[in-house]
Automatic annotation (TrEMBL):
Name of the molecule in the record: Cytochrome O ubiquinol oxidase
Annotated TM spans: 7-27, 33-55, 67-88
UniProt keywords, alphabetically: Membrane, Transmembrane, Transmembrane helix
Amino acid sequence: MASRRGYLTGFILASVLMALATFLVSSHALPPFALLLAIMACAGFAVIAQVYFLLHIDISEHNIWNTVALVAFVPLFVITIGLTWWMFSQLYLRTMPSIPGMPGMH
């Protein structure tokens, strides 16, 4: 059941993780690849905290259809974002004028 404590816990946990990611980026505390991994970890844990504490989706029998909907949604979301990125990167390569002397450009 929804409770004030659950909502507050989820909000605080997600806020702390986002503040940590913001601090890591603004302070340049890690090398670029490690920074990317740390940001992805913070975002992943924040999403999990929000799904569990704010949306109350878990693997219990009571929430089985909400869990099934989430499991179906996540791959479709990732595919949609990936295909959109691919489409715009290809569009950029095909429509932007080439710059003389730039490696990798046509």
